[in-house]
Amino acid sequence: MQALRRPGGSVSVGELGEFGLIAGILARLPQGASSLLGPGDDAAVVRATDGRVVVSTDLMLEGRHFRRDWSSGRDVGHKLAAANLADIVAMGATPTALVVGLACPADTAVDWVNDFADGLREECALVGASVVGGDVSRADVIMLSATALGDLAGVPPVTRAGARAGDAVAVAGRLGHAAAGITVLTRGFRSPRMLVEAHRRPQPPYAAGPQAAAVGATAMCDVSDGLLADASHLADASGVSIDLRSGAFPVPEPMANAANALGHDALRWILTGGDDHALLATFAPAVPLPAGWIRVGEVLEAGEDGPAVTVDGGPYDGPQGHDHFAR
Amino acid sequence: MQALRRPGGSVSVGELGEFGLIAGILARLPQGASSLLGPGDDAAVVRATDGRVVVSTDLMLEGRHFRRDWSSGRDVGHKLAAANLADIVAMGATPTALVVGLACPADTAVDWVNDFADGLREECALVGASVVGGDVSRADVIMLSATALGDLAGVPPVTRAGARAGDAVAVAGRLGHAAAGITVLTRGFRSPRMLVEAHRRPQPPYAAGPQAAAVGATAMCDVSDGLLADASHLADASGVSIDLRSGAFPVPEPMANAANALGHDALRWILTGGDDHALLATFAPAVPLPAGWIRVGEVLEAGEDGPAVTVDGGPYDGPQGHDHFAR
């Protein structure tokens, strides 16, 4: 194993070699209480006390989901873990473990990879989970995968399919912040910092998922494609329509300012921006919303044309979400 | 959603769009008995009756782990699932579920992706598992990730760390076949078919893992980096040395013929080739080996220089394994 210094002072992944790289990563990943057998064997063993395990997987690609000049390795570690952990809490479960795939060019700085591992660890620690295993390979750009596991602790999973006419529609967490951050960065700015940071490190409302499950949320999902698109997925799965009230969404001052400065519509960021990993859920009318949830609309019977999502009673005029293969 | 025909007659992923692509994939993936909630929600829910879940993840990249002119989509589906499921049985567990990430160029033929899904389904069916979820994205080359889950059914996991001096060393499954297949393909040949097929679709000895666990195998691992490299990992984890007997390894006639024709050493394929996903395990001396296992060596006390792997009592002269970042 060689550990030569590059001119810039940092060692590259190719210089360190696969096994040295893995050893360095593992030293940064302490094992949590749910990890019965951590990294280093063919597979890990994770506690699944409930007798069921919740599982979700995500890919993140350099140039598509992040740019190294906009986000540090640590930001990317936070973001990858957050995206994946949010899917677990969106079922009403508590995350227990993450496994991660990392493919990168041989000239990637080892420091970047170590920062990435730090970000993973820090984000997992917010929910008491840990990184229990992974795989590394070489690629022309950085390609990341993560799979999160979670525990339902005896409650039924909250799917997208249980919303009923008359239910309240509510959200927890930020909306439109990451999308506004991307717009700001794309225009060459680095502020407002709050929005740029929201793109770099989403802040999913982790506690809100299990709390919604505990009070009997009828349906729930993670907002990753944009609120209108994800509300539409939930409406389709439940066979209902959803009407959102545009006035219900708080617009923080930095977002209002950025919208003004850039000639953008803040409501569009809120309704169509993904990547904040807010939660969207429906609750029976009599249920008081748990802390952190705000009511933003109502579930209606599906109309003659089937399930639909409207804003203030009418169709929203604009792009509704994200297709990864759209040009 | 558009479904235009390309000149060649097949629809591309970009033409079909993300949601149409996913719908087509899901139609090919029936859910097994362990899938309590399959694809389509934020996360899946998988039975984990044992109260623990075994988890392992792998990446596979076009140009590095497979080539589209050498392997069909179906081959690649088989190979990705096999690599991942083998890690689960190497712990002594039975696979229950797979989640898969697929990133591909917009001009990828939808037929390729559907074939890939068919391969995943067919390989999972061999062990009673199913694909319960996934993620799709766009990339410049095909990048795949898979995470497999498994159930230990009440037995302790068989790690790499339990081998003791005096134990028998045994293997189950093929060795060197996939490596010989790559050599054959690299030299521009397409036969012997048995070797080329072994590269395209490994045949891990799935039943042999839980069977070894049932008779109390002291240590076990999947042979993915090459027998010498993986034996070395097992020896290091157990703090022992391992001596292999070169005469113990059967050399099938097509491999002997290919070695002759290409001026290659068949034993080197067997000792250093990965990707067949054979199993390597150690058993207490008195234990009769389960069906399918052959004895290939012995566990020794580690020497003064620490754990080592020898062949016929001496060091093996040649490259020992695979570093993903080696040039």
From TrEMBL, chains A, B:
<feature type="binding site">
    <location>
        <position position="160"/>
    </location>
    <ligand>
        <name>ATP</name>
    </ligand>
</feature>
<feature type="binding site">
    <location>
        <position position="225"/>
    </location>
    <ligand>
        <name>Mg(2+) 5</name>
    </ligand>
</feature>
<dbReference type="InterPro" id="IPR036921">
    <property type="entry name" value="PurM-like_N_sf"/>
</dbReference>
<keyword id="KW-0808">Transferase</keyword>
<feature type="binding site">
    <location>
        <position position="87"/>
    </location>
    <ligand>
        <name>Mg(2+) 4</name>
    </ligand>
</feature>
<comment type="pathway">
    <text>Cofactor biosynthesis; thiamine diphosphate biosynthesis; thiamine diphosphate from thiamine phosphate: step 1/1.</text>
</comment>
<keyword id="KW-0460">Magnesium</keyword>
<feature type="domain" description="PurM-like N-terminal">
    <location>
        <begin position="40"/>
        <end position="150"/>
    </location>
</feature>
<feature type="binding site">
    <location>
        <position position="224"/>
    </location>
    <ligand>
        <name>ATP</name>
    </ligand>
</feature>
<feature type="region of interest" description="Disordered">
    <location>
        <begin position="308"/>
        <end position="327"/>
    </location>
</feature>
<keyword id="KW-0479">Metal-binding</keyword>
<feature type="domain" description="PurM-like C-terminal">
    <location>
        <begin position="164"/>
        <end position="256"/>
    </location>
</feature>
<feature type="binding site">
    <location>
        <position position="222"/>
    </location>
    <ligand>
        <name>Mg(2+) 3</name>
    </ligand>
</feature>
<feature type="binding site">
    <location>
        <position position="57"/>
    </location>
    <ligand>
        <name>Mg(2+) 1</name>
    </ligand>
</feature>
<dbReference type="InterPro" id="IPR010918">
    <property type="entry name" value="PurM-like_C_dom"/>
</dbReference>
<protein>
    <recommendedName>
        <fullName>Thiamine-monophosphate kinase</fullName>
        <ecNumber>2.7.4.16</ecNumber>
    </recommendedName>
</protein>
<keyword id="KW-0067">ATP-binding</keyword>
<keyword id="KW-0418">Kinase</keyword>
<feature type="binding site">
    <location>
        <position position="275"/>
    </location>
    <ligand>
        <name>substrate</name>
    </ligand>
</feature>
<dbReference type="Pfam" id="PF02769">
    <property type="entry name" value="AIRS_C"/>
</dbReference>
<dbReference type="InterPro" id="IPR006283">
    <property type="entry name" value="ThiL-like"/>
</dbReference>
<feature type="binding site">
    <location>
        <begin position="134"/>
        <end position="135"/>
    </location>
    <ligand>
        <name>ATP</name>
    </ligand>
</feature>
<keyword id="KW-0547">Nucleotide-binding</keyword>
<dbReference type="GO" id="GO:0016301">
    <property type="term" value="F:kinase activity"/>
</dbReference>
<feature type="binding site">
    <location>
        <position position="87"/>
    </location>
    <ligand>
        <name>Mg(2+) 3</name>
    </ligand>
</feature>
<feature type="binding site">
    <location>
        <position position="42"/>
    </location>
    <ligand>
        <name>Mg(2+) 4</name>
    </ligand>
</feature>
<feature type="binding site">
    <location>
        <position position="65"/>
    </location>
    <ligand>
        <name>substrate</name>
    </ligand>
</feature>
<keyword id="KW-0784">Thiamine biosynthesis</keyword>
<comment type="similarity">
    <text>Belongs to the thiamine-monophosphate kinase family.</text>
</comment>
<feature type="binding site">
    <location>
        <position position="87"/>
    </location>
    <ligand>
        <name>Mg(2+) 2</name>
    </ligand>
</feature>
<feature type="binding site">
    <location>
        <position position="58"/>
    </location>
    <ligand>
        <name>Mg(2+) 2</name>
    </ligand>
</feature>
<feature type="binding site">
    <location>
        <position position="135"/>
    </location>
    <ligand>
        <name>Mg(2+) 1</name>
    </ligand>
</feature>
<comment type="function">
    <text>Catalyzes the ATP-dependent phosphorylation of thiamine-monophosphate (TMP) to form thiamine-pyrophosphate (TPP), the active form of vitamin B1.</text>
</comment>
<feature type="binding site">
    <location>
        <position position="56"/>
    </location>
    <ligand>
        <name>Mg(2+) 4</name>
    </ligand>
</feature>
<dbReference type="Pfam" id="PF00586">
    <property type="entry name" value="AIRS"/>
</dbReference>
<dbReference type="InterPro" id="IPR016188">
    <property type="entry name" value="PurM-like_N"/>
</dbReference>
<feature type="binding site">
    <location>
        <position position="58"/>
    </location>
    <ligand>
        <name>Mg(2+) 1</name>
    </ligand>
</feature>
<dbReference type="InterPro" id="IPR036676">
    <property type="entry name" value="PurM-like_C_sf"/>
</dbReference>
<feature type="binding site">
    <location>
        <position position="42"/>
    </location>
    <ligand>
        <name>Mg(2+) 3</name>
    </ligand>
</feature>
